[in-house]
Amino acid sequence: MALDFIPGISKALIATSWRLSTKPYTTNDQFHQEVVEDNTVVVAFRRSFLEKDWFAPANESSFGETKMDPAEFPSMISFSNDVDADARATVNEAFLKSLQLLISPSCTQSVKTLVENMRPRRIVFTGHSSGGATAILAAVWYLETFFTKKCSDFPVCLTFGAPLVGDYVFKHGLGRENWSRLFVNFVTRFDIVPRIMLAPKASTKQALPYALSQLGRTRAPIQENDQTIAGFYATVMKDVETAARQAACELIDGENAFLETFSSFLELSPYRPAGTFVFSTGTRFVEMSNSDAILQILFYAYQSTNEQELSERPNQSIRDHHGYEEMVDSMGTKDVYQLDLNHFLSDGGEYALFDLRLSTSARECVRAAFEAEKKRNDNQSKIETTITKQSTTKKSIEEKLKWIEEEYKQPRCQAPAKGYYDSFKESNDDNDFKANVTRAELAGFFDDVLGLMKKGQLPDGFEGDSDWIKLATGYRRLMEPLDIANYYRHLKNEDTGSYMGKGRRPKRYKHAQKLDEHDLLKSGGTAEKIMASCLSICFWAEVEDLRGKKYDEVTNEGTVEERVTKLENFLIDEKVDDHIFLEGSTVTKWWHSLPEHHKRSSLLQQRMGYTRAT
Amino acid sequence: MDFSPLKGSELGKLMLRSGLLHSSWNKISELRASRAHQVQTPGLGIKLFQETKYTVAVFVAPPINITCPLNSASTLLSGTEEQNPFHFLCSEKISSFSLHTPAFQLFDSAYKNLFGLKKELLESKKPVIITGAALGGSVASLFTIWLLETVEAKLKRPLCITFGSPLIGDAKLQEILENSLRNSCFLHVAYASQTPMKPNFKPFGTFLICFDSECLCIDDPEAVMELLGGASAVDQIDYGEVLDRLDQTVMEDSRLMIDDVITRMEERAEKKKVRFDQLKKLNDIKISMIYIEWYKKKSKMSKIGYYDRFKTHLVSSASPFDVDIEKRKIEVNDYWRSLVEEVEKKPQSEKSVLKTRSLFSGNNYRRMVEPLDIAEYYHNGGREYRASGRSRHYVMLEKWFREAYPKEQHRGKGTDLSELLTFDSCFWSEVEDALIMIKSLNTQEGDREALLSKLVRFEEYVWEMISKREVSPEIFLEKSSFMKWWKEYKEIIKGFRSSDFTKFMKDRMYERYGQAC
């Protein structure tokens, strides 16, 4: 089998990447570059075996982690985890700092300048050990900075024995943007480096500088029976075990409250594998991209029940950390086995895992990881069926939206009607009732989908899918006014306050709005445009809130006068639908109820057909 | 909620390899050793260990005297806070439970010390582990329950780890805890063949059941009882050794031969799941409510009001819409009845489980649907609904809503009330009772004066609601029972009573009631 996991990545390119990743530095340079083949540039980052380059010295968190700045990395967040507060990705601070140094304007050898000069050539980011970690972050930065939807020549990131860099959100963000496929991590079986970040700083602190220096020595082998090294490896693997076992328990039963209590007493690493991993098992390569399964393999592939074998592990591990030359050389001659969901379901991974000698329970944990993936895929196909296919008893989601748009909204948005907002609010005929039932059915569907996203029970890519964003945005624009109408019809504002107040607006809309905003941002939308996209629906709630207020009142959100002016400006500047100004519409009625002196100088006069009272 | 053998063994391995069990046991041994040279140490030994990541409270108790008659005795706890330190556990359904007497006595004897410890641990910034072996573990469990007086999903929860401790409570205690987050705070390590079972006691929390070279982590109380048992040499087991031995074998593949226990456990988990899934129809309930809302609107358009329409169709033949509404009423009633039942099982200190949103939709449901139940009740010849006909779930929903919102927001002066649901969901039963009184007056049954003064009281009750804008304008619809009452009442009081209310009605001021200004 050929190396076909990344189209267009040849064996020669991988070999060049490896060579460049390990090429010595004579200056203070932080990376090497080389133009290869016809249109590709390889950028390899410098590795370091100094503790400060692995754990940022001033960082006080247990795993040296920090949050990514959404201004710089707008995709590295989760929209569904907590709709009210974006969950930002967590990454290792030391690795992030090494990237930031290279992209800062003051940097003499700047990656930024380099890639700007090299575009539109394809760029391969690569590195060995900690250099691989920098390469991963550099590739993410490059994607975030230059890759809107229009671009075609995506970069690639190849790492050799790189430590884990980011957490679940990081992995989720890459998956949502469909970038995961661009990251390929080569890992030799016993290499400790991809496992190190699963151990808390505190448990390895003492031995880490020494262990790193040993890893950095490419020539002289370490002494047998080096107790410090043996202790270091045992500690790391114990923490890897805890991380893997805890993850396995969550895969098997994620809603177990006891597991939650118990886990809060463990120091669990936030870091998770992201992208594709290619393990060398001796006789073949195993390629995987299921993050949960990779985590299990990182633990079980190192394990042994044999004391003698275990005592040899540190030496093997150090050898393996430099064993990528051999791995690269044997590419093309050894088999590549894709351990993905389909293969696993057909043969239980028997063939791929043979060399790793996994125990039955280890295989069951790997199986649990794939079953979770299967469940995510099944959930997705179920949703897609509900969207498009009509069942005997129920109309599809698309049909429902179409009915609302064409049969309900349009006839009500032409004079002498009042607009569909007010028609729905009054609900006097059978179709208003029908629209209300449809509203609830659609809400049920979108709530269910959001619930699945929140629990991570859909593939990462689902949220980033442009068809889904289109559907959710269309749904929000069409249906949210009806939810607002329903809210104020039932006087819920008198019970719990404004629709836009904390905890009132349904999460399904907040989430759909975030996806839409993110989409606009990625396609180069300006901040104003993004703001307007939100307001274009929610102004209904603002109108309702202002209706109940006196003109000279002062509210928490500013004086009523200010709010009125702001709203008017919005109605003038933005292309809002004409039906909003129909006679009998809430907006029109509200505007006419404003004090005469306001109306006299209002910019909406014309729109509202205002004639000055004499 | 599901059970699989893999889950049991993987959880077990995680517990074992986490190091938490070893370090807890070591501290118990340390404290036991330090007390061993003291001549006689009756009562409880407690020591706090401050670790870097967490605080550990260790409980050591004198050995359990197996010949002591108290060993299997239990103490019944009920009543108020003064009589029962675990008062907060009681729910609407369960007001008492029994505890293992020796454990409770030890707990009670050290109450003062424990009070200080509780305060200290509640203020601890680090997470808290509470541990003990044998009877010491029982007291640790009791103390943990006591510490968990306030428990919230978002707060960090303590963890109680016991080693070979006898069961401490009866089935009622288990039932209370099963419905509480508290259940997730207990890990009982027990050696399978040497943990005695006592009749009438039932385990709670999670058990790590140790066999010679395997362990299994389960939380199904029936399965725990099936797997534990045997002799009662509780105090002699060195769990340090047990854990070490298991640690050696944990990577090996071996499987327990307890398939029958596991099969039964899976069956129970399946049943529980079915019960849980039935409750997950919230969106269907919302849709049914929309139908009922529409029914109300349609009735209003035909000038009858949904209460009277429902009442009428019970008598005469009904349209398919009416029949459908009757079905939907049953559906939403079932939903809320079982939801209220679930909440009632929760310990009283955890009732905030009924989230704000459910509180409001429960309140909305009560005001919308209870009138239909009232119609049915009086149609079947019932009287005095509020006192003797009301379903418990309505009472509870109203009570919880009142507790959370003692003063409901008044409707604004300018607010359009056309969609308002009458605040007092029993309003129509008052109307029915008033109608019955009028009938009695007309047929000259009963004490005329008493009946009259009751009717006046009803009038005042209605007037108060009108002035506070708490009643739906639909009561004034032409064909409504309320208007029927008014017509008859007007005749009865003719000539001797006038009030703001009678003026309001006679001058037809109600026609403008509830309109937006």
Quick summary of this structure?
Chain A has helices spanning 11-22, 93-103, 111-118, 130-146, 168-176, 193-196, 201-204, 208-216, 227-252, 257-263, 291-300, 307-321, 324-329, 341-347, 350-353, 360-388, 397-412, 420-426, 430-454, 466-489, 492-496, 507-522, 527-547, 560-573, 586-592, 596-601; strands at 31-36, 40-45, 65-67, 77-78, 87-88, 90-92, 122-128, 156-160, 183-188, 276-280, 284-288, 335-338, 554-555, 558-559. Chain A is of the alpha/beta class and 614 residues long.
Description of the structure:
Chain A is built from 26 helices and 14 strands. Chain A has helices at 11-22, 93-103, 111-118, 130-146, 168-176, 193-196, 201-204, 208-216, 227-252, 257-263, 291-300, 307-321, 324-329, 341-347, 350-353, 360-388, 397-412, 420-426, 430-454, 466-489, 492-496, 507-522, 527-547, 560-573, 586-592, 596-601; strands at residues 31-36, 40-45, 65-67, 77-78, 87-88, 90-92, 122-128, 156-160, 183-188, 276-280, 284-288, 335-338, 554-555, 558-559. In chain A, helix 2 (93-103) crosses helix 4, helix 17 crosses helix 19 and helix 20 (466-489) runs parallel beside helix 23 (527-547). Chain A is of the alpha/beta class. In chain A, the strands form 4 sheets. An 8-stranded mixed β-sheet of chain A has the order 1-2-7-8-9-10-11-12, sandwiched between helices. In chain A, strands 3-6 form a two-stranded antiparallel ribbon. Chain B has 517 residues and is α/β, with parallel strands linked by helices. Chain B has 19 helices and 11 strands. In chain B, the strands form 3 sheets. Chain B has a 7-stranded mixed β-sheet, with helices on both faces. The longest helix of chain B is centred in the middle third of the chain and has 26 residues, at 320-345. Chain B is elongated and about 95 Å long. The model of chain B has no long low-confidence stretch (mean pLDDT 86).
